[in-house]
Amino acid sequence: MEKRNRQMHFRLTASEMERVEAKMKELGIKSLCAYLRKMALDGYCVKLDLQDVKELVSLLRRCSNNLNQYAKKANENGSIYEADIKDLRVRLDEIWDGVKEILERLAGIS
Hints:
about 110 residues; 4 helices; mainly alpha
């Protein structure tokens, strides 16, 4: 086993140290050195921009509302308009395209 003979030093604020300790506790790690070494060598930070997901949720809500309105109309009248169904299909296809794009980008995170 290789001997650890190099040192690194850095300073933290009290709140930063509390965050480090909280993360160690979550992971069940008791050694600060072991935790910091593992994070420095293997850890990574991820910042996700979820604006696309928020837009998809909004589109899903609109489609769900439209679908509920169509179902209500069908129950009242016994029929619905073909144009309404085509419009809903187009919206759902847009949502699926967005989902596929987001999943491809997420799969590319390494």
